Amino acid sequence: MSKINFRSRVGVWWTSDLWPINDVIARAREIEQLGYASLFYGEAGGKETFTQAAALLGGTERLVVGTGIANIHARSAPASETATRTLGALHPGRFVLGLGVSHAPLVEHSYAGTYAKPLSTMRDYLRTMDAVSDKIEPNDQRPARLLAALGPKMIELSGTAADGAHPYLVTPEQTASTREQLGPDKWVVSEQAVALTADRETGLRRAHQHLHMYSQLPNYQNSWLRQGFDESDLVVGGSDRLADGMVAMGDADALAAHVRRHLDAGADHVLVQVLGDDQSEDPLPVLRELAPALGLS
């Protein structure tokens, strides 16, 4: 299993596409100072993922930076592999390559690609990455490679052809299932959305807003059905039951307790995604309040 230099067991998941990169770097520095060990972010048509990783790694000292995920339809497999090796050579143990097949609407409309047979597409992509010559940035510290794995077959692939899985929008029980399937020697880095609020209605509003897009994507619908939800939970924005299952709500202690449920279930590392009233809201105020409850320093 490739090494990752996590200083603690909790990190941050934040898509900062709407923020100027220098402001993102400034916040990444404070995230590092607060004791969070990592910063992961998505790729859905905003900033180019490897350029952003290079900026964040260069602007911080110990923070692990991860793609959560890099869309395999956005670039060729050799481009992903050579970029990954370069970042790994520059920042050993601090870059994590998360890869995902994305979703049909995004691939076909934003990238003008073809979305078919996601499992075999990912398998072929990984094989092509592995075939890149060892003469390009040769070292024995290749960055860890995680897959956005929700279904059992993709989870299996994350164990046989990668270093582990990056589950997103899952319950602690699903984290436990992923750990059981992968065994003890692969990484499980789970994401957990949180809404810091004493008002349940505010928490539910933020949760439904967060789930609005995801609830319309078949990959997540199928994942939630496998996790024990049913068709009644798959309304646009998700049911209240789904919102409670996917988003931790309450005070800092309640949110920290939910994060620990993923750790107790077998996650090596949990990524906290702060939900506010707007996608462009600064996550730092919540992260500052949450850090002591998580035992970070």
From TrEMBL:
<dbReference type="InterPro" id="IPR019922">
    <property type="entry name" value="Lucif-like_OxRdatse_MSMEG_4141"/>
</dbReference>
<dbReference type="InterPro" id="IPR036661">
    <property type="entry name" value="Luciferase-like_sf"/>
</dbReference>
<dbReference type="GO" id="GO:0016705">
    <property type="term" value="F:oxidoreductase activity, acting on paired donors, with incorporation or reduction of molecular oxygen"/>
</dbReference>
<dbReference type="InterPro" id="IPR050564">
    <property type="entry name" value="F420-G6PD/mer"/>
</dbReference>
<dbReference type="InterPro" id="IPR011251">
    <property type="entry name" value="Luciferase-like_dom"/>
</dbReference>
<feature type="domain" description="Luciferase-like">
    <location>
        <begin position="19"/>
        <end position="252"/>
    </location>
</feature>
<protein>
    <submittedName>
        <fullName>Putative F420-dependent oxidoreductase</fullName>
    </submittedName>
</protein>
<dbReference type="Pfam" id="PF00296">
    <property type="entry name" value="Bac_luciferase"/>
</dbReference>
